[in-house]
Design a protein that fits this description.
Largest sheet: 29 strands, antiparallel
Number of strands: 52
Structural class: mainly beta
Distance between the termini: 81 Å
Shape: globular
Helix content: under 10%
Radius of gyration: 29 Å
Number of helices: 4
Strand content: over 45%
């Protein structure tokens, strides 16, 4: 009864004083500051700032319950800046305060900073690597090795990330990770994705999240998610940065990039442009044995590809602030890539270990790719409680022209030319059009809970035309066995719901993503070869327990899927040489992975994770079909079987002295590959140990240096046995011009050891491969920041990049 009377009395007094205050028409703003776990932030410094010109109006200290109030102010738009020892500084707002109004802000929550003890010195800045439930965060702005690098270079040097010679990027096993920028997937895969990442410079990146346990809001990704979060400044005005890179390995490397942003209180205009020009060597040596009819034949191939590449990345857009809570914007971005190849393949043929003949294939193909994306977006805050709504509409075109004329010259065992050359035409243009729309809704249903939901609709039309055939009487012809016209259409409709809540020391996130896929593929040669209509249910759960300020435990479970890339289902045969082809598979089905992780983290720096995942319908690795009679080998994607994976991941930071620190990561796992009966009798287990780390040395206040290392033990993957892989990088950098400029000298793959080496001995397959790209490169990079140093770089969510991410444009 006393409690009820007290509540009624409190309500009466609150109403009385509120009305009394309103009667005297006092203009004021008030609110409450809370630290993590809903603790009050008593004593926090609260600064009232005019939004228009960033001038300081007044300063106060939060009370015992975290409350603050500024009275007798003018009607205007205000920002609140809050700072407190042990917490990160936080801006909140802007808040429109009207004349005579007592404006109450939503509760403002502070984040605790990470404190690391080295001797008696406390460092309250964020560590370079930070462990959180379901993900590892790379704080790029605190990383010495990242200075002057691109996003691609940073990922390659990040502990726990693997980048192979085909530019596949992995954080879970060898499955490709989904690359996102500000929570939105990027475009394309392979070399095209690498081109986009090379255009994003380190000074525009705040941090990178390596997510192994995503939520239902994320597009499904069996190989995890790498989320690149770009910096966002809070100041108005003009700002930006310029980066120039010059390097040399076997051939020249160069890059120049500019990023700018101009923000006022009504509009924000932003853009970027980069040009990359380099020459790169790619060499592959293959030995393949065919044992048929008691005759052992060996095909020894030395392939060298030299590509002269020019990449232009661009983006331009604007945000218009319709009000303080609503924004509409547009964005046009894309890339133009021109590749001029010189290919030489020397194929030596042996029978019963006796040299028989040589086939030399030469070509100089031109391959040009143009990608343009048009986006219109809206975001708005629906009410003072924090409900938000966002929407995106996209239209994207991807056009590829690829023309190759191949000369095959034949020689006998004595080196004499035998017969006339075989001249072949290999033309494979493609056009892919995408229309994607999406809408997202978020509702903070309480101070400790949040509900999110959304819809996404995607329509893709992919048209591919392959003209392949010999020259006859001076005219190139089309061979119907290898030429084809393939049209693929796909509709993907997705809906998700995600609920997050906090209960004392527990955080719980549970969600469900439902995806309908409707796909059809028609071939002029084979008729309708793809006809899918299916629905996937993809649940996710993440539970975290915070024992105290330093110790945290988390458990995550989720189910993910990966749909085949558009070219993976294309039945074309792509020519490599007379005995070696690559082909798509129209019968390819999606693969599915179920993941579970149990993680312990200390001080958000040390982390130990036990994990297990099972992938069914796996097609990630290379599979080959060999015809022993014709000796032709075809590389084809295939739903091979099931992969079981169990492992332990350790992240260990070490501070040796105040000038020498390191981060080491261990990933030790055991995998078992079990083939479906139609693919053979493989049932093999294997271990895989990956050690990676970075060390940084502070030589002086402006000069730093570092070493990055990677080692992976010999391991079995798919149907191939890989040898150990290892490399080391190093750098030294200095800051110039009052820390606005950075000059960095670096060398990648110092000892020139990075290469893929594997052999396959399965069923009738018996071959070995050494794959080496140009990785030993010396680079000098200079970055200069102009304008306001707290600049804003914007990468807008467009919602259609998951479809673009499945595009395949592999370079040979």
């Amino acid at each position: 009864m006393k409690f009820l009377v007290g509540c009624l009395l409190s309500a009466f007094l609150s109403c009385f004083f509120y009305n009394l205050h309103a009667q005297v028409n006092v203009t004021a703003i008030r609110g409450k500051i809370l630290a993590e776990n809903n603790l009050s932030a008593e004593g926090a410094t609260v600064i009232l700032i005019k939004y228009k010109d960033s001038s300081i109006v007044n300063t106060a200290a939060a009370g015992t319950n975290g409350a603050f109030q500024f009275t007798n102010i003018n009607a205007d738009d205000y920002l609140i800046l809050v700072s407190k020892a042990g917490c990160e500084k936080l801006y909140s707002g802007p808040y429109p305060v009207k004349s005579g109004q007592m404006f109450t802000t939503p509760d403002i929550f502070l984040k605790l900073t990470i404190q690391k003890l080295s001797g008696v010195t406390i460092n309250s800045t964020r560590p370079e690597l930070e462990a959180q439930p379901g993900k590892l965060i790379v704080n790029v702005q605190n990383s010495l090795s990242a200075q002057g690098n691109s996003a691609f270079d940073i990922l390659r040097e990040t502990p726990g990330v693997r980048v192979d010679n085909s530019n596949n990027i992995n954080i879970i096993g060898r499955q490709n990770a989904l690359i996102t920028i500000n929570d939105v997937p990027t475009s394309l895969t392979g070399e095209d994705l690498a081109s986009v990442l090379r255009g994003i410079q380190a000074n525009t990146i705040d941090k990178i999240e390596l997510i192994t346990a995503g939520s239902a809001k994320n597009d499904a990704a069996t190989g995890g998610i790498i989320n690149i979060i770009l910096k966002k400044g809070k100041n108005t005005g003009f700002n930006g940065s310029f980066t120039g890179v010059a390097g040399y390995g076997k051939y020249y490397k160069s890059n120049a990039a500019i990023v700018f942003n101009d923000r006022t209180d009504k509009v924000n205009i932003f853009g970027n442009y980069s040009i990359t020009k380099n020459k790169e060597l790619h060499a592959i040596t293959t030995d393949r044995d065919v044992d048929f009819n008691e005759i052992l034949s060996r095909y020894h191939s030395d392939y060298k590809s030299l590509v002269d590449r020019a990449i232009n990345n661009f983006g331009f857009g604007a945000d218009f602030y319709l009000s303080k809570t609503q924004t509409i914007g547009f964005l046009v971005d894309g890339s133009v890539t021109n590749n001029d190849f010189v290919k030489n393949n020397f194929l030596k043929i042996y029978h019963q270990s006796v040299f028989d003949s040589t086939v030399i294939a030469n070509s100089s193909p031109d391959r040009n790719i143009t990608r343009i994306n048009y986006n219109i977006n809206y975001s708005g805050k629906l009410d003072s409680a924090g409900k938000t709504l966002s929407a995106n509409i996209n239209y994207t075109t991807n056009n590829r022209s690829s023309t190759e004329y191949i000369t095959n010259t034949f020689f006998d065992a004595s080196g004499n030319q035998s017969g006339p050359p075989l001249l072949l035409q290999n033309s494979s243009p493609s056009n892919i059009r995408q229309m994607v729309s999406m809408i997202d809704f978020a509702d903070p249903v309480s101070k400790t809970s949040k509900f999110e939901a959304g819809l996404k609709f995607s329509n893709v039309v992919s048209v591919n035309n392959l003209l392949f055939g010999p020259q006859i009487n001076g005219v190139y012809t089309s061979d119907p066995k290898y030429s084809d016209y393939f049209k693929y259409t796909e509709n993907v409709n997705a809906a998700y719901a995600d609920y997050q809540t906090r209960m004392n020391k527990f955080d719980l996130t549970v969600g469900l993503r439902t995806v309908q896929t409707i796909a059809k593929g028609n071939s002029d040669t084979w008729g309708q070869v793809v006809n899918y209509n299916y629905i996937d249910l993809l649940p996710s759960l993440l539970m975290a327990y915070k024992a105290d300020d330093k110790n945290e435990y988390s458990l995550s479970l989720n189910r993910t899927t990966k749909r085949p890339g558009y070219e993976d289902v294309n039945p074309f045969l792509y020519y490599i040489d007379l005995y070696d082809y690559r082909s798509g598979n129209p019968n390819l089905r999606p693969e599915y992975t179920t993941n579970i992780e149990l993680t312990y983290s200390h001080n958000k720096s040390f982390a130990a994770t036990l994990y297990s995942n099972v992938t069914t319908e796996a097609y990630e690795f290379r599979y080959y079909v060999q015809n022993d009679t014709t000796k032709v080998n075809i590389n084809i994607p295939k739903n091979f079987g099931t992969i079981y994976n169990w492992g332990l991941r350790l992240l260990t930071p070490v501070t040796f002295t105040n000038w020498w620190r390191a981060d080491f990561k261990l990933d030790a796992s055991y995998q078992r590959y079990v083939a479906y009966p139609q693919n053979g009798n493989l049932n093999k287990g294997t271990k895989d140990i990956i050690l990676s780390g970075s060390q940084s040395f502070k030589i002086s206040n402006s000069i730093s240096a570092g070493l990055i290392g990677f080692y992976e033990s010999p391991s079995f993957y798919g149907i191939s046995q890989f040898k150990a892989n290892y490399y080391a990088d190093g750098y030294i950098s200095t800051q110039l011009f009052d820390k606005r400029g950075t000059l960095k000298l670096s060398m990648t793959d110092i000892f020139n050891t990075l290469r893929d080496r594997f052999n396959t001995n399965y069923q009738n397959l018996n071959f070995s491969v050494v794959d080496k790209i140009e990785t030993q490169v010396l680079k000098l990079a200079f970055t200069y920041r102009f304008g306001k140093t707290a600049f804003k770089t914007i990468a807008h969510p467009t919602g259609n990049e998951e479809e673009q991410n499945r595009l395949n444009s592999k370079e040979n």
